[in-house]
Amino acid sequence: MTDLNSKPEIDFPEGAAPEQLEITDVVVGDGAEATAGATVDVHYLGVEFASGDEFDSSWNRGQSINFPLRSLIAGWQEGIPGMKVGGRRKLVVPPHLAYGPAGSGHRLSGQTLIFVIDLLGVS
């Protein structure tokens, strides 16, 4: 059973990084549904696909994050709509939907990223 009150763990991925966004519902929520124009309240964990190294986590800061989907990377803009409050979703985001190709100026450019996102609220 998945505990949505604790930081998720991500198993080290096997095989090649995907070229398209992969969306997996770990837990399907039963609350309000996130839409493309929504503002979301989430807890999340992000790791690099290639190394499994964690690069960011709202869990480590001890508080969720609230922001409009339209201000996030394309992988989140495409991967969160349809998710319901109370759910946990895993997104495997290729570089073109994250921070762009290597050399784009962001420290994570060129990287395929894995996020586990808990949807706590939508508005």
TrEMBL record:
InterPro entries: PPIase_dom_sf, PPIase_FKBP_dom. Belongs to the FKBP-type PPIase family. Residues 37-123 form the PPIase FKBP-type domain. The keyword Cell cycle does not apply. One of its GO terms (molecular function) is peptidyl-prolyl cis-trans isomerase activity. It comes from Cryobacterium lyxosi. Keywords: Isomerase, Rotamase. It holds the Pfam family FKBP_C. The keyword Lipid biosynthesis does not apply. It catalyses: [protein]-peptidylproline (omega=180) = [protein]-peptidylproline (omega=0). This is Peptidyl-prolyl cis-trans isomerase.
